[in-house]
Amino acid sequence: MIAKDLRINPLRTSLTALSMFIGIIALIAGVLVGTLGRDYLEAVNARLGGKSPTYSAIVDVPSSVNIQVVTALQERLAHFRPGIASAQYHLNDLAIWASSGDGNTEIRRVTIIIIDAERTRIMPAPIIEGTWLTGADEPATLETAVNESARQYVHDGTVALARTGNPQQVPARVNGVIADGTDTPTIYVNATTLQRYWPQAWEPDGLTILVHPNEGVDDQHAKTVLDDLLFDVGTGSISSWNRSDNADDYEQVIGFLQLGVTVTAILLLSVSAIGMINIGLAGIEQRSHELLIRRALGATRVSIAIQVIGSSVLLGLIIAFAAVLISAVLVWAIPWMMPADSPLEPPAYPYTAAMIAACASIVTSLVGSLAPAIKAIRLQPALALR
């Protein structure tokens, strides 16, 4: 009887289903948008300042550091147990040969960062084309990667590196193009290959090591382990240790975003419940004669209440299943719509939000059908005889 009750008035059932469907989809979408918004802020800031938390260790490194030391440091940092660590060397006189406006080539200063392959694990940058730098496992040639703005300096898969005031051009292979979140032309040079294949340019005047500790690891413990590592490989010691990510700039924004999503979800469910109550009360007005006849024939108030509430709950279950299924398909399709340079990872389906939405659908059905059920059981059977 409960199932048949849904077919008595198709229009009423359709309006109720539509109201519930919109409420559930809006709840899942609100949570997903909030999650994507938080992830986007975190990803954008991670590209520029590192994953939260990221610490910068400034190391005074002598220019006489040789390839054995660089390779040993790179290998040790690749297996840094307290977290992820990446070395960035400071070389101030590197530049590139690039075309000038009159068609000639000249030395041009652009941002050149001398790093290892671990950097993108701390400051993630989506690969737009090609690959990232290789590790310290004997790369075949001097290699680089460029961002989108520096793509203009790539010719035949290479860039021409130079030193300020020196006409010598050294070709360097470009492994790939990355989206690092900056508009400044930037070229990333593999530190190991630079020291091995162009030792004349290897005159570092400093070293910065970026450290992203594992969850639950104290930053002072990570600093101590790093200091011991530097001492073992003979690279000096830490002179400065500071947090360098931009978490303080966006954590408050994320808090407001999550609060706004929560309030919006509650309001959407409230609107859905109110819509169900209105539709349910209108349905009782239309079906009052039918319900009165049932009461006159001996139906109890409990059976009347079960019929009214049961039909709403059954409809809620059906709509919840349909909404969760459709939302899962939409979330599955999101990665196909994301651009290649998006800082976001493909989002995972918000199972928790879906479970909350399904439960909210049942609760909304109960709340929305409670008032109509009370009105139905208060109908007097004697009115059916009039």
From TrEMBL:
One example GO MF annotation: transmembrane transporter activity
> Does Cell membrane count among this protein's keywords?
yes
Subcellular localization, as worded in the UniProt entry: Cell membrane
Record-annotated MacB-like periplasmic core domain positions:
13-224
InterPro entries referenced in this protein's UniProt entry, alphabetically: ABC3_permease_C (IPR003838), MacB_PCD (IPR025857), Macrolide_Exporter_MacB (IPR050250)
GO cellular component terms, alphabetically, are: plasma membrane
As for membrane topology, the entry says: Multi-pass membrane protein
What protein name applies here? Efflux ABC transporter, permease protein
Which species does the entry assign this protein to?
Bifidobacterium breve DSM 20213 = JCM 1192
